[in-house]
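Before relying on records like the one below, remember that each one covers exactly one chain. Contacts with other chains, cofactors or solvent are not represented anywhere in the record.
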Amino acid sequence: MKTMAEKNVASAEAYYRAMNHKDAAGVAEHLHSDIQLIGPLATLAGKDAVLEAAKRFMSLIKEIRIHAKLASEQRVMLSYEADFGEPIGICRTAVLMTFKDDLIELIELFYDARPFAGT
């Protein structure tokens, strides 16, 4: 039987796998209705707003590659590379996800936002 931490890691990986496949419905099924997203460029609240941001992100990326993962009972931290292609290239990112009711309730993104300043 999987622990809660293992279930949450699997959900976080499935969320990013859906992004790699440009699958908005697959992304949405992992989001809590009260989701919040906090990042260097924006803070968003609500499933519709976060899903729209995810759709914009998916339209820009070529691929996401997860390199490391850590988990506790309600939180997952991933280290990944988002490949945007030229002129941005690779964006090394860390994400801290908090889960509630087996869904992602909070996404905190950590990355260097300078390459995105004019977008």
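Residues 4-20 form the longest helix (17 residues).
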